[in-house]
Amino acid sequence: MNTVLSRANSLFAFSLSVMAALTFGCFITTAFKDRRVPVDIHVSKVMLKNVDDFTGPRERSDLGFITFDLSPIFDWNVKQLFLYLSAEYATKSNSLNQVVLWDKIVLRGENTKLNLRDMKSKYFFFDDGNGLRANKNITLMLSWNVVPNAGILPLVAGSGHVSLPFPDAYEATKSY
């Protein structure tokens, strides 16, 4: 005869099996969805400012504006998006360098049509031996991680990027 504990164990195991099947169903309905959206990136003027400290030269750049609409990405299985703007460039010592310049978390229910103007980089470029100054091919790309309620965390690159040259000299910093 079954005891109360064995019946509770059977009920608990059945409930977990049903929850696992529902979670898998949640994942499979959005697993193959294309999460790319067009991104419009403009850079009006690139200014590099040299900031010396104990770690060596760092550059901070002034960016232009970025416009994009994230509403096609959000569905019932998306909890939040982690957006980041990265720069890719090549130097003599490294064939591919990637630097994150800016990031933002967009939660479900927030404004998904972003129009970011007069942006400044949130993070510094750390120049590994003057590879940024006078570099003629630096590509800015907006990418994002989709944080779902259930499933994998896809890394998606936006369908728009811009390549630009960096100036030959640093901007003079003003001291007040």
UniProtKB/TrEMBL annotation:
Topology within the bilayer: Single-pass type II membrane protein
CC annotations in GO: signal peptidase complex
Superkingdom, taxonomy of origin: Eukaryota
InterPro entries: SPC3
TM segment ranges: 12-32
Single GO biological process annotation from the record: signal peptide processing
Pfam families in alphabetical order: SPC22
Protein family per UniProt: Belongs to the SPCS3 family.
Job description of the protein: Essential component of the signal peptidase complex (SPC) which catalyzes the cleavage of N-terminal signal sequences from nascent proteins as they are translocated into the lumen of the endoplasmic reticulum. Essential for the SPC catalytic activity, possibly by stabilizing and positioning the active center of the complex close to the lumenal surface.
Entry protein name: Signal peptidase complex subunit 3
